[in-house]
Amino acid sequence: MISSMRHRKYLLILFIAVLANFIAQIPYYLHQYHSTPSIVGSILLTFILAWFLVSFVWLWQGKQRGYVMMMLFLIVEFLFYLSTQITQATSGKGILLHVISPDDPILFVVFGIGYLNLIVSAVFIVFTFINHRNNSKLAD
Questions:
Q1: Measured distance CA(88)–CA(94) in Å, rounded
Q2: In Å, what is the CA distance from 128 to each residue of 6, 61, 66, 84, 131?
Q3: Dihedral of alpha carbons 35, 40, 46, 48, sign
Q4: Distance from the CA of 140 to the CA of which of 85, 90, 107, 121 falls in 20 to 30 A?
Q5: For residue range 65-82, what is the model confidence (pLDDT) as tens digits?
Q6: What is the per-residue burial (b if ≥16 Cβ within 10 Å, else e) of 102-111?
Q7: What's the Cα-to-Cα distance from 85 to each of 2, 114, 127, rounded to whole Å?
Q8: pLDDT digits (tens, 9 = 90+) for 93-115
């Protein structure tokens, strides 16, 4: 599944992109809301980060449950960012908000990382599915 070094390099790219996205939420929240994060929001964000980290470790180890959990994580992440693009486009704000027309450096970076995660999640959904399917065929 993720046994070759080439595949692990790709998984590390995913790890860096997703971790950057979680880290970016801290300055984003402070910049936008000028207060400390809510306990409920912090717990939810911690739960989602734990979901990703456990999925990552299990996938790195080549465990089937890592594949399933990572695919679910990536699908949820992709759908979240896709839905924000659809909402922005249909509300008249346009797509790639704060990146095409940067008006704030913090929002430019945070939204850019978010859009990167939209792309990375889509690529990794396809990559992981194809890689898993090819390995399953070899095992049959």
A1: 5
A2: 13, 14, 11, 24, 5
A3: negative
A4: 121
A5: 999 999 999 999 999 999
A6: eeeeebebbb
A7: 31, 11, 23
A8: 888 888 888 889 999 999 999 99
